[in-house]
Amino acid sequence: MSELDSSRASAQKIKTYNQKEWIKENLSYRKDTGSWAWILHRITGLALIGYLFIHIYSLSPLTQGREAFNTAVSKYTTPFFMVLEWLLFAFVLFHSLNGIRIVLVDWADGARYHRQLYWISWIAGILMFLAMGALMFSHELKNLF
Fold first, then answer.
1. Domain 34-144 = CATH 3.30.470.10
2. Of 3, 31, 116, 130, which has the fewest CB atoms closer than 10 Å, so is most exposed?
3. CA–CA distance from 25 to each of 19, 33, 35, 76 (Å)?
4. Which pTM value belongs to this model?
C-alpha cells in the first residue's frame, strides 16, 4: 500500500461532526468529574452574573429615598427569599471552591489528584452549606422545637 493510499484510508476513519445532532451527541457523552466541574462552574458563573443584575436592580429604590428603599427591601425578608439567599450561597460556594480546585490543579501539580480534589470540594461545600443553613434558619429552628 502506498503512502497516498494509507493517508486516504486514515482520512476515511476520521469522524465527521453532524451539526444537526450536536445536542444529542453532547448529552449522550459520558461525563467525568472534570466535565461536570466545568459545566457546573459555567452554570454557577452565569447564575452569579444574573444575580448581580438583579441585585443592582433591587438597589434602584435608593434613588427614591429611604422610605421607598425600606419598603422595597422589606419584600426580601420573607422565608421564601431566605431560602433563595441560601441557594445563592450554594452557587457562590460551589463556584469559589471549584475555583480553588482549579488553581490547585493548574498551579500545584494537582492534576494527579483532580478527582479527589473534586470530591473534597463537594464534601466541604455540603458541610458549609448545611452550616450556613443552620445559621440562617436558627431562629426558625428554635421556634420549631
1. no
2. 3
3. 9, 19, 15, 42
4. 0.71
